[in-house]
Amino acid sequence: MxxxxxxxxxxxxxxxxxxxxxxxxESYNLNTSTLLLYAVITFITLGxxxxxxxxxxxxxxxxxxxxxxxxxxxxxxxxxIFGSLLGLAHGLPHRTLASMAQTSQAASQLMAISLGxxxxxxxxxxxxxxxxLTSQHFANRPIKQSARLLMFNRAIGFAPNGTYWxxxxxxxxxxxxxxxKISAHEPARSLECTSMLNDITTEQSLHGFVxxxxxxxxxxxxxxxxxxxxxxxxxxxxxxxxxELQEMVREGFELLGAxxxxxxxxxxxxxxxxxHIKERCMALVPQVKKFIKKIINEHKLRGSVNLLDDxxxxxxxxxxxxxxxxxxxxxxxxxxxxxxxxxDTIALLTEWVMAELTLNQGIQSKLRFEIDSFMGNKSTNNDxxxxxxxxxxxxxxKETLRLHPPGPLxxxxxxxxSDVHLSNGMVIPANTTAMVNMWSITHNSDVWDxxxxxxxxxxxxxxxxxxxxxxxxxxxxxxxxxxxxVCPGMNLGMVTVSEWVAKLVYQFEWVQDMxxxxxxxxxxxxxxxxxxxxxxxxxxRNGASEMM
Length: 548
Ligand code: HEM
Description:
Layout: H1 2-53, E1 55-56, E2 77-78, H2 85-88, H3 93-101, H4 105-109, E3 111-115, E4 118-123, H5 126-133, H6 145-149, H7 163-175, H8 179-184, H9 186-207, E5 210-211, H10 212-229, H11 233-236, H12 239-257, H13 277-301, H14 313-319, H15 328-359, H16 361-376, H17 391-403, E6 414-415, E7 420-421, E8 427-428, E9 433-436, H18 438-442, H19 490-507, E10 508-512, E11 522-524, E12 528-530, E13 535-540
Parallel strand pairs: 4-9
Antiparallel strand pairs: 1-2, 3-4, 5-13, 6-9, 7-8, 10-13, 11-12
């Protein structure tokens, strides 16, 4: 009996446990499917809500801001609060914007989007780009938080259009970027290049390959230091000071190039700064001030000097008097900007050129033939500086600027100060940020044949091409911008890159290292750079005589 009761109890227990388990299992199943159902419903509701709440152009283009003209500005839908920000914060925004603009011809002319609360227009065709860049109502720039904190609002690039900015441009164009000033600094430029060539030879013999970028960056920094501060670390050899400057420039690049959400969503500033931009800028500025003020004081101690063509920029700024006189803090900002702008752009453009030449051996040989012929003729009255004018060399550099514009969105946008009427009937309202998608223009098959192929001949008149002017007069290829805020350093940039490429090609043959193939993937920071720095094998050319 006892056994029966116990076995009964046991059976009951089992069946009870079984039922509980079943119930649990069923409820678990129910919970999972309920959860899944909820997730799907939430997802769909959010999608529908977002779609419903999304408005043409996004939140910054409400109340028909894009329809002031008799032709309205095409406006892809943008999310509430963020607009198009989420899609553009990562990856390669110039490519994303280019495909957004492809939706219609009108959108390629101009497109209205919201970057958070910032109303923005993007031009992807030469005519609209010209009208924006050359408009007197687009002579200001929107200023990022990092640029303001790093003092750039007192330097040329971000100073608002007005007396101060005009004064700075005048000083820079007559004392820094005038052709005779650029020629006067030629010996220093050449010396930096020779030292770079030696370093490259050493690296090749030590490692069997060369990673070019660091050599170019060191040469550019030294070169600009010589022009701006009259000091080259190649000659002075102060390693600590050079490292300190390199580190400050690197940190500055990172801060200025970083995507800062609070530039477009100002309320985020109070609680979300994942890159610690504010904190890092505040830490960097005193270091920069200390470093540059020390150099200014060294110049002051030397006493006043007679300005010559190769005088450095600190001497120039110290010699200004009367109304042109600048405060020491303003000088720091201007000098810092020049070091900053002159380093990265030149190094990265030269790297792109050398990457294309390494990949395109036929083009490299053709270029070397041109340079060899020039060198063979040097007993004639050829000035070495004339090497920068060689037609094929120019064509190679232009083609690189077309295929890899260093500022694909022209880096620093413009801000409208009043309504701007375009010839196509669209009106851009005052206080709108404008970007020109130069990458989109230079990769448009309506503008360029075979836009994705590296073909320098397209710029060679003798090969049936056309000699396009890249200095802002032809908006099919304006990598230096255009209008009154066009890059003032473009001549210095072009001369330096031309000279260095000529010497790199003359002294070495550049071939791919098959273990580290050339990778042209882009990465957009402050400039658009090669994601994987160029790594190649160089073969010294025994026949190459020393270039001055
Ligand atoms: C290959 C080299 C370079 C490229 C591709 C380049 C590109 C640009 C671009 C696209 C702009 C904006 C133009 C616009 O808004 O229309 C700009 C502005 C500027 N660039 Fe360059 N740049 C180069 C070299 C240099 C150098 C070497 C310096 C000085 C040492 C320099 C100094 C500046 C300054 C100060 C501005 C601001 C001009 C203003 O707002 O008034 N750049 N650059």
